[in-house]
Specification:
The protein is α/β, with parallel strands linked by helices and 285 residues long. It is 40% helix and 19% strand. The protein folds into three domains: 7-16 and 195-284, 4-hydroxy-3-methylbut-2-enyl diphosphate reductase, catalytic domain (Cobalt-precorrin-4 Transmethylase, domain 1), CATH 3.40.1010.20; 18-99, Rossmann fold (3-Layer(aba) Sandwich), CATH 3.40.50.11270; 102-192, 4-hydroxy-3-methylbut-2-enyl diphosphate reductase, catalytic domain (Cobalt-precorrin-4 Transmethylase, domain 1). The strands form three sheets. A four-stranded parallel beta sheet has the order 1-12-10-11, sandwiched between helices. The protein is flat, with a radius of gyration of 21 Å.
Length: 285
Amino acid sequence: MVGCDVRIEVASEAGACFGVDRALKLALRAAEEASGPVHTLGPLIHNPSVVADLDRRGVSVVDGPQVAAGDTLLLRTHGVPPQVEEAAHQAGAIVVDATCPFVKKCHRAAEELAAEGRQVLIVGEAGHPEVEGTLGHVPEAVVVGGADELDAIQLKRRVGLVVQTTLARDTLRAVVTSLVGRVEDLRVVDTICEATTRRQQAAAELAARADVMVVVGGLNSANTTHLAQICGTYCDRTFHIEEACDLRREWIEGASLIGITAGASTPQTEIDIVRDAIGAFVRER
């Protein structure tokens, strides 16, 4: 509650998930304990401000596993193909696996489906690092972005399906519905992270009541972008920002309820800063 006529409400489920919290703790511990340089293989998470903060603490981003022997290399939360991890070991790096456990579950499921002789479909965004990591475990798998892409695929009799952990559940439902009746033997392993589902449901519930929704998280974050899309279906005045400095006072004009949600790569501290900044705008009105 900010004033008698304006409320600011944070969604009941918002912000950094277990996998992100775990990865950040591993990175900070490595920065404190490592005797040599510390790197992450690609951005540890899709949050530019967090990545910049890690860099200030001595944890830099590298594009490939070719680091000096003795360097510490953290594998990003999204996971990497097995051959990339092996290359890091061969280079003599101290490898710290910060892959989200739920992403690892997706890797194992894809491998099991392939071992059963099934055509493996990965429902997710082509080119997304998590999807690329899963493809590294099952190179013959086919990436499907949505039900509309199935017509272009030569489907086999036996099909197995896994899902990008941060994907919207509606996309999975649409793909499964379209596959039913088109293949003889379909096995679906729902690898969407439950925290993602809860975050999306809480965002939708708040957006349906709010006059304005502010979605906090990296513009390059798939799960945050999905949150913004979900909120936008319920609230026309939905704004996706990375940091509090991106806020605009005119966005909240005339609003009685201002909702805030945040993606899985957004720490609670960033949510608090955004909430306080909106509160300052409200008090200035």
